[in-house]
Design brief:
Rossmann fold; 342 residues; seven-stranded parallel β-sheet; carbohydrate metabolism; 2 domains; 39% helix; UDP-galactose 4-epimerase, domain 1; alpha/beta; single chain
């Protein structure tokens, strides 16, 4: 089976994708700087699958010399590119850092790929590239208009890959724009472990349920939605991982650049998600409604038809399963990958 390089493979989505890649028989090489990830996640990936990674390299994708050594050492056939920074608020405060990591890292990676004749890539993009959509559900033909440096950095890399494919038709690229990843591996052994205060709803809710935080802040209850809170397309991380596997498997037969939404096609409000988590955990999740966050939109969910047609992929897991798996991970690992405190 082919060898795949997974950048950012120790992170949340990367580690779950490594599980499905190993289970599918691929040889997996991971490169990760561990700035926002833990090596322990990959130890657990190997334990879960009963298979070993071909290699792990602690390196930054902006480091061309480190990448050259990796490509010279392993017979890499394709790349799944997750590595990058991903907090919207932080990107507004530190735009140059985000462009350096996300755009500069992607340029360095594709340069070294080209030097070694590797021209197949699956890129981890985001629905943030759509900005505030005029309507829902969102399909791949919608206008793009990212409203923050994080989203713009993703969009810039999409443009770079498009230009690369136009300049050299030997390249094949799939851009996966995904919506709101949640949940964890059903074993409870790997999951989302954000550093500091979580930026996303589900890990914050989980930390409130486990007692790490006193209450959830709900940002606005005056949106034009059924209960007034924001509506998002939450997708189980295992469905997302399987989407990356399907993209990789289809990649050789797909000409040029293909852009695909990965979502469920259904939106859930913040309060619906909170109630579902309370049901899954049998814990109360106290919350307080505060003002809207600047830049937040009322509703956002995907039209997943193109993913089904092009990749033969559909999300299979519902919100109850997302919450049950997220709680199993949080309950078994109250401090994430860090050791339990005495």
């Amino acid at each position: 089976m082919a060898t795949v390089l997974v950048t950012g493979g120790a992170g949340y989505i990367g580690s779950h994708t490594c599980v499905v890649l190993l289970e599918a028989g691929f040889e997996v090489v991971v490169v990760d700087s561990l700035v926002n990830a833990h090596r322990e996640s990959l130890v657990r990936v190997e334990a879960l699958t009963g298979k070993s990674l071909l290699a792990f390299h602690e390196a930054d994708v902006r480091d061309r010399e480190a990448l050259r050594r990796i490509f010279a050492t392993h017979p890499i056939a394709a790349v799944i590119h997750f590595a990058g920074l991903k907090a919207v608020g932080e990107s507004v405060e530190q735009p140059l850092r985000y462009y350096d990591y996300n755009v500069g890292g992607s340029v360095a990676l594709t340069e070294v790929m080209a030097e070694h004749g590797v021209r197949q890539i699956v890129f981890s993009s985001s629905a943030t590239v759509y900005g505030d959509p005029a309507s829902v559900p969102i399909n791949e033909q919608f206008p793009v208009g990212a409203t923050n440096p994080y989203g713009r950095s993703k969009l810039m890399v999409e443009h770079i890959l498009g230009d690369l494919v136009c300049a050299d038709p030997r390249w094949n690229a799939v851009v996966l724009r995904y919506f709101n990843p949640v949940g964890a591996h059903p074993s409870g052994r790997i999951g989302e472990d954000p550093a500091g205060i979580p930026n996303n709803l589900m890990p914050y809710v989980a930390q409130v349920a486990i007692g790490r935080r006193p209450f959830l802040q709900v940002f606005g209850d005056d949106y034009p939605t059924p209960d007034g809170t924001g509506v998002r397309d939450y997708i189980h991380v295992m469905d997302l991982a399987e989407g990356h596997l399907r993209a990789l498997e289809c990649l050789p037969a797909l000409a040029g650049l293909n852009t695909v939404n990965l979502g469920t096609g259904r939106g859930y409000s913040v309060l619906e998600a909170v109630r579902a988590f309370e049901a899954a955990s049998a814990r109360e999740v106290p919350f307080r409604v505060v003002g809207r966050r600047p830049g937040d939109i009322a509703e956002c969910w995907a039209d997943p038809a193109h993913a089904a047609a092009l990749l033969g992929w559909r999300a299979r897991r519902d919100l109850a399963e997302m919450c049950a798996d997220a709680w199993r991970w949080q309950h078994a690992n109250p401090n994430g990958y860090l050791p339990a405190t005495p």
